[in-house]
Amino acid sequence: MTAVEFNNRIQFLIPSLEPFAMKLTKDHSNAKDLIQETMLKAFSNKEKFTTGSNLKAWVFTIMKNTFLTDYQKTSRRKTFIDTTDNLHFINSTNIEQKNAAYSNFAMDDIQAAIEDLEDIYKRPFVMYFRGFKYHEISERLNIPIGTVKNRIFLARKELKQILKVYEM
């Protein structure tokens, strides 16, 4: 495979890498950095790719390994060594305990806010929240997919307004 063919094929993989990067990093900018680092490693190691094997799996493996390596480096930076006689490792991050009552109040308010939604907004929103895809909701409620998306959007908007006190 020529370098141009390799570059063209690998460019088409970027849209499929984005969800995986988001799943790993849980942050949009970190996900973009991870994709960029993955692409750099793939381009610089293209001679290690075996023609005929699965390019997508190869690139996903690079991404996973890059993420794990960076995660381990970050974890090591947050740990320091106590040089006293017992020689044990202590994690330097702050430990914070929160009162569960606050989260119970928040959950009660969220449940009440969802219950107060109009039924035409509540049903699609709850189904989406439980993991149904837009097209599944559309089929089960017998409404167009655009209407499903609109009702979920409006339900979220109303819930954000009602639960504004919990914004951070």
UniProtKB/TrEMBL annotation:
Keywords: Sigma factor, Transcription, Transcription regulation. The keyword Transcription regulation applies. One of its GO terms (molecular function) is sigma factor activity. Residues 19-76 form the RNA polymerase sigma-70 region domain. The keyword Transcription regulation applies. Pfam families: Sigma70_r2, Sigma70_r4_2. GO terms for biological process: DNA-templated transcription initiation. Gene3D superfamilies: 1.10.1740.10, Winged helix-like DNA-binding domain superfamily/Winged helix DNA-binding domain (1.10.10.10). This is RNA polymerase sigma factor. It comes from Flammeovirga aprica JL-4.
